[in-house]
Structure formats: structure tokens, C-alpha cells
Design a protein that fits this description.
Strand content: 25-35%
Structural class: alpha+beta
């Protein structure tokens, strides 16, 4: 089980995420492009929720130790064909 220790805004559309699982820890920066936010219909006050859901999604596919230093949503979309559907489904609830 992973504990996301903190998600902190670091400026416009940018967040730092600190997480751990067992004895592994990681810090990662998430950059949210306005285009992806528009495509997903995510408002500025919901960006942190999107980051949390994206981190949870990525951790289903990789370990904390392998988590990228920087997460660009465009890269996630390009790498994982189901990402947008999963996130859209989660945000429509």
C-alpha cells in the first residue's frame, strides 16, 4: 500500500508529490498542461484531485522506486492508452 505523504502546489499547474511504500520513498513533480486540463474538464480548484488520481493510476503500473521525477500528463496519455478513460470515469463521479 502506498501512502501519499503530501501533494503541494508549486505554482501554476505544478505540484510536488511525496510518497512512500514500505521503505521506499519518492518525490515527483507533476506538471498539468492547460490543454489536458481542458480536455478533461478539470477546473483549477480540482487540479490537486487530478494529481492524486494520476499518482494512484501510475502506482498501479510501477513501484515507488521507479516513479518518475517529473510527471507530464502528455507523457502519461501517450504511454497509457486507457489513462484518459480511467481519469474521465473517476472525475465524472
Amino acid at each position: 500500500m502506498t501512502d501519499v505523504l503530501a501533494i503541494e502546489p508549486q505554482g501554476e499547474h505544478q505540484f510536488v508529490v511525496r510518497m512512500s511504500r514500505r521503505e521506499e520513498t519518492a518525490e515527483s513533480w507533476s506538471n498539468l498542461s492547460p490543454g489536458i486540463l481542458d480536455d478533461l474538464g478539470v477546473r483549477e480548484d480540482d487540479e490537486e484531485v487530478l494529481v492524486r488520481r494520476t499518482v494512484a493510476y501510475l502506482l498501479e503500473h510501477q513501484d515507488v522506486a521507479d516513479f518518475p521525477d517529473v510527471v507530464e500528463l502528455e507523457d502519461v496519455v501517450a504511454t497509457y492508452a486507457d489513462y484518459l478513460d480511467v481519469i474521465r470515469s473517476a472525475t465524472s463521479r
